[in-house]
Recover the amino acids of this structure.
């Protein structure tokens, strides 16, 4: 926090501008939908919409006057953190029905206040993935247990549309979880193959449904691939340099913006 405010970094430099533009478009400026802002992911606007503006939570900002957008960002962060904790509590009660409610609530609060959220709350769109992860996990378990594939497909599509950056990481996690679940629940090869085909088919359908957002985004990224290659190269070199600093992040209160947060917790 800077000066008692969270409006620093991306929130002040990017989100406020994008939400002003978002309000302008949805309140009648439809001819400006393809207008390219100078910041963000490059020259085309498709990438900016896909990264910043397609979350259904963003509609909440329309309730606030344009002069009160900072307060709208505070409400969005508070709401997403609260829903993340609630979603995890709900998943635990579904997954472990014998678990006492107080334990489920405590674990849900822990999930909602984990160091990743507290550290990256200024990356507002990343929080959508944290909210939807427990829900898509429940839907995936339904799918793997032979129940309807529809909830999984629809929720995973929503994850990808809300924010592709968190979406592809959640998709990778689901693949790893499928492997772990299949090993743990292995009975015979026909059952394994049938479960794998259901999972692959539902995931592929979700990818096709979200292609309406992902294809323009890929084209946008490809158009700016030289900048991305330079940025990725710089990132790799920085990761090599900061590697010796990572163990220090295990100490409570140790914060280095160049190093991934591991167990860092801070007071709000």
């Amino acid at each position: 926090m800077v000066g008692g405010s969270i409006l620093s970094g991306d929130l002040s430099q990017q989100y406020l501008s994008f939400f002003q533009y978002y309000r302008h478009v949805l309140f009648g400026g439809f001819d400006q939908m393809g207008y390219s802002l100078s910041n963000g992911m490059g020259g085309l606007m498709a990438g900016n919409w896909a990264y910043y503006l397609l979350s259904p939570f963003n509609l909440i900002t329309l309730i606030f006057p344009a002069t009160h957008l900072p307060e709208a960002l505070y409400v969005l962060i508070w709401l997403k953190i609260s829903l993340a904790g609630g979603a995890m509590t709900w998943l635990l009660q579904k997954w472990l029905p014998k678990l006492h409610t107080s334990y489920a609530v405590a674990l849900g609060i822990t999930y909602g206040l984990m160091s990743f959220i507290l550290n990256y709350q200024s990356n507002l769109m990343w929080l959508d993935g944290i909210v939807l992860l427990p829900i898509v996990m429940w839907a995936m378990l339904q799918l793997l247990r032979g129940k309807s594939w529809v909830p999984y497909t629809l929720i995973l599509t929503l994850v990808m549309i809300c924010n592709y950056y968190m979406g592809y990481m959640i998709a990778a996690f689901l693949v790893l979880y499928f492997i772990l679940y299949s090993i743990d629940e292995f009975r015979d090869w026909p059952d394994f193959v049938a479960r794998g085909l259901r999972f692959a088919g539902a995931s592929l359908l979700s990818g096709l449904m979200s292609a309406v957002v992902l294809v323009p985004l890929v084209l946008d990224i490809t158009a700016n691939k030289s900048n991305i290659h330079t940025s990725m190269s710089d990132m790799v070199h920085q990761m090599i340099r900061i590697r010796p600093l990572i163990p220090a992040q295990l100490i409570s209160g140790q914060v280095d913006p160049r190093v991934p947060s591991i167990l860092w917790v801070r007071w709000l």
The mean pLDDT is 80. The chain has eleven helices and no strands. Residues 73-223 form one domain. The CA atoms of residues 128 and 162 lie 7 Å apart.
